[in-house]
C-alpha cells in the first residue's frame, strides 16, 4: 500500500532543508506557490455560495450516482474528494468551524484562502515566512482583543428578539429564508427547551437533545415542535397497543435473538432427541432473559402485558432516548458473580409512548420526558430493548413504581436535572427540500446555542470585517518592523467578505465597500478626537496653568490634536460648565449620552444592506451573529500551512511487498 504524505517543519517556524534522493529541492524556495494554488482550488467554489442573495447551488455527485444539491459550505467541503494534504487543511478548518459555531464555514475558508494568497505575494517580494507568521499572529491577537472591547455587545443590552435575529441571519441564505420568522421562533423555542446546568454550575444548551425528524407531506409551515423524543419507526406488530401511559423504558445495547453457538464449537450427539433438547435450550435462554426484563414490573408476556415493540431502532436513537428519559444503556445482563440480572433502577421514565401516523410513516412519540430531581421519590416508566428471533425489537413497558436514587454506579449525592428533550417535526414536499431544511435548522440551532452560551453578539453583513480592517490598517502604520507589511495585508484580506457579499447580491462591490470603509474610518478617528477633547476639558479644570503650558508645548511638538482641543474648547467649555452645579454630572451626563448615540449611529456596527444596496447599522436592523471569531480559526490554519516547507511523497517500499 502507498505510504502517507509527509510534511516537515521545525518548531521555531523555520522550514527544514530537505535533500533526498527522490528530488533536489532548492533551499532558497521557502514557500512553494504550487502549494498555495492547491488551496485556492478548494476555495474557488465557495465564494458564490455565500451571502444573503447568493446564486450558487452546487450539485455534488458521489461514486454511486447520488446527487446532493446544496449551497451550504460545510456540506460542499465535506463531500469534496481532496487529495492534497495542504488542501485538506481547509476542509478540516471548515469542519472545525461547523462544530464550534455551526455557521460561517464558507467565510472562514475564504478568509484563509485570501490570507494565503497575500502571504504568497509577500514571499515573492523576499519577505521571510517567519516575519509573515509573526505579523499574522500579532494581527490575530489585536483583532480578537478589538472585537471583545469594542464590537461585542451583551445580549441583555439588546431587545428581546436578538436571539430570533441571530437565527434569521443564519437562515437568510437558505431555502427557508422566506419563512425565516416562523422557523427562527421555532429554533429559539427548541434551544431554550433543552437548557441545563452542569456540575460546575454553568448553563449549557446541548442541541444534541433536539431530534430532527423529517416527514413527507404538507407545507414547511406545518412543521412543529414536540416535547419529547420521536423515533422514525413503528410497532413491530399490529396487535400491540397504540398507546402506553405511563411508560417505563429500558435500553439494551445487545440482541435478544435466539442464542446460537459461537463459531468453532462442535457438539457430537448420537441421539436425535438430544439435538432437539439443544435447540430448545437455545430458545429457553432468550425466554429467560425476557422474563428478567418483565420481572422488573410484570410477570406476563408481551401484548398481554401492554408492551409496545418497535423494530430496528438505531443505536444513536437508543442513546438519545436513554438520556431523555434518564435510563441507563445496558450492554449485558451479566453481573460480577456471572449471573444474569436486571435491576429496576436502570429504567427511564416518560408520561406516555404513543404511535402516530405522519403522512405515510408511523412514528413513535415519547412524550413527557420530565425533569428528574435526585433525593426524592419519583415515578419511573421504561422502555425495554428487545429482539425477537427474526427482527431487532425495542419494548416499551408500562409499569408504575416508586424507587429511590440508588443506581448501579453508586449513590447520587448531588442534585441533577434531566431537562425536557424536544423533537422538530419537519414537513416538506420531497427529500431534497427536507434535507435542505434540516441543514439550515442545524446551522441556526448551533448559532443560537453559541449566542446564549457566549452571551455576546456582533453586527453582521461585513461590519466586523470592515471595522477590523480599518483598525489593523491603522495599527500597521504605527509599527516600524517587517510585521507592518503582514498586518497591512491581513487587514486587506478581511475586506474579501463584504466584497463577496456585495457581488453575490448583484451590487456594486467597489462603491459599497468604499462607503463602508469611510464610515468605519470616520468612527475610528473621530473616537480618538473625542478622547482628546475630553482630555483637554479635564486639563482646563483640574490642572494648574503650569501643567497646561507644558502639555501645550508637548502637543505642539508631537503634532497632536490636544493643542487644538485646548484652544477651541477653552471658552465654550468654561461657559458651559459654569452653569452646572455638579462638575461630575457635567462631565458624565450629556457628553456620555451623546457619545453613545453617536457611536450607535456612526459607530462600529455599520454593515451592508444587500437588499437596498446601502450601508446601515446592522445591529439596529437585527443582522447579528455570535461573537465567535472566525478570523482566529482562519489565521491558525494559514499559519499551519505557512510553517510547512514542502511535501515529499515517499516511494513504495518494495522490500515489504517481497516479504509478503
Q: Your description of this structure?
A:
α13 (496-504) packs across α14 (509-542). The longest helix has 34 residues, at 509-542. A hairpin with a 2-residue loop joins β18 (406-407) and β19. 37% of the residues are buried. Mean pLDDT is 69; it is low at 1-45, 298-305, 371-418, 556-564 and 566-602. The protein has 660 residues and is an alpha+beta fold. Among the domains are: 6-153 and 636-648, GroEL-like equatorial domain (GROEL, domain 1, Orthogonal Bundle); 228-420, 3-Layer(bba) Sandwich (GroEL), CATH 3.50.7. A six-stranded mixed sheet has the order 7-20-8-15-14-9. Strands 10, 12, 16 and 17 form a four-stranded antiparallel sheet that branches. The chain is elongated, with a radius of gyration of 33 Å. The chain is built from 21 helices and 25 strands.
Return residue spans where pLDDT drops below 50 for at least 5 consecutive residues: 1-45, 298-305, 371-418, 556-564, 566-602
The CATH homologous superfamily of one domain corresponds to GroEL
Number of strands: 25
- CATH architecture descriptor of one domain: 3-Layer(bba) Sandwich
For the sheet with most strands, the description reads:
6 strands, mixed
Which helices and strands, and how do they pair?
Elements: E1 6-7, H1 33-43, E2 58-61, E3 67-70, H2 73-79, H3 85-100, H4 105-124, H5 129-151, E4 153-154, H6 162-171, H7 180-193, E5 196-197, E6 203-204, E7 210-216, E8 224-231, E9 243-244, E10 248-249, E11 251-252, H8 272-294, E12 308-311, H9 315-325, E13 329-330, E14 352-358, E15 361-367, E16 378-387, E17 392-403, E18 406-407, E19 410-411, E20 422-428, H10 431-454, E21 456-459, H11 463-477, H12 483-494, H13 496-504, H14 509-542, H15 545-558, H16 562-578, H17 583-588, H18 590-602, E22 606-609, E23 614-617, H19 618-621, E24 624-626, H20 630-642, E25 647-648, H21 654-659
Parallel strand pairs: 7-20, 11-13
Antiparallel strand pairs: 1-25, 2-3, 4-21, 5-6, 8-15, 8-20, 9-14, 10-17, 12-17, 14-15, 16-17, 18-19, 21-24, 22-23
Helix pairs in contact: 1-3, 1-4, 2-3, 3-4, 3-20, 4-12, 4-20, 5-11, 5-12, 5-20, 6-7, 6-10, 7-10, 11-12, 11-14, 13-14, 14-16
